[in-house]
Amino acid sequence: MNNTMKFIExxxxxxxxxxxxxxxxxxxxxxxxxxxxxxxxxxxxxGVAYHAYRxxxxxxxxxxxxxxxxxDIIRTVIVADTLENVAVLGIIVLIRTFLSLTLxxxxxxxxxxxxxxxxxx
Length: 121
Known about the structure:
By secondary structure, this protein is mainly alpha-helical. 79% of the residues lie in helices and 0% in strands. The longest helix has 38 residues, at 3-40.
């Protein structure tokens, strides 16, 4: 096996590893969010626990999507650099970015580039 093949194999493993971390972030975030929701459901006023749950769960999904996008980019650009694969990557990144943006809007009530006065402090 030559050095180029070893390099491509290492990068491919790195890409899959980063994607696995993304899946793990979503799974662990879902579990932690759910446990926190169950524990706080009776202690917090009606609706507060639910909104906190959605916010925490949504943030876990967004973070997981970021890892999935990074893994896709690494594997596609370095390992499978055909024009067709790059086009598929572009579509995947667009879809995942759209999901991240809409989740952020749903959770925070504003776009990621909009800042509240609280952030300026």
